[in-house]
C-alpha cells in the first residue's frame, strides 16, 4: 500500500466511525430516531449543545447525561445560553402534509405501514 493511501485511510477513520455511530445508535436505543440524535449530540458536551441551539435537558429526557448535571438537580447543561424559541424534539419531528402514495413495481405493491 502506498503511503498516500494509508494516510487517507487514517484521515477517514473518524468520519467512518461517526457514520457507523449515526447508523447504529438510533436503532439500538429506546429513543425515537430524532431523540437519539439529540442524545448523541448532548454526549459531546454542553458546548456542542450550545453550538446547535439546544437548551438544557431534564432527567428522563433525551439529551440528559448525569455527568453534565453538576449540582444533581436533574437538569444537565443548566448554564447553556437559551434561544428565545427553544428547539425541542417535537420541532424536529418530520411533518407530513399528505399520505404517501403506495409504490408498485410490476405486479408487486409496496405499502408503508400506518402508525
**Total beta-strand segments:** 4
Structural class: mainly alpha
Number of helices: 4
Q: What is the quaternary state of this protein?
A: single chain
User: Which series of helices and strands comes N to C?
Assistant: HHHEEHEE
Strand content: 5-15%
Produce a short descriptive summary.
Helix content is 42%, strand content 9%. It is mostly helical. The chain has a domain at 31-110.
Write the layout of secondary structure elements.
Layout: H1 3-28, H2 33-43, H3 46-52, E1 57-58, E2 75-76, H4 89-92, E3 103-105, E4 108-110
Antiparallel strand pairs: 1-2, 3-4
Task: Walk me through this protein's architecture.
The protein is mainly alpha-helical. The protein has a domain at 31-110. 42% of the residues lie in helices and 9% in strands. The protein contains four helices and four strands, in the order αααββαββ. The protein has helices at 3-28, 33-43, 46-52, 89-92; strands spanning 57-58, 75-76, 103-105, 108-110. The strands form two sheets. The protein has a two-stranded antiparallel ribbon with strand order 1-2. Strands 3-4 form a two-stranded antiparallel sheet. β3 and β4 form a beta hairpin. α1 (3-28) crosses α2. The mean pLDDT is 77.
Overview features:
single chain, 115 residues, mainly alpha, two-stranded antiparallel sheet
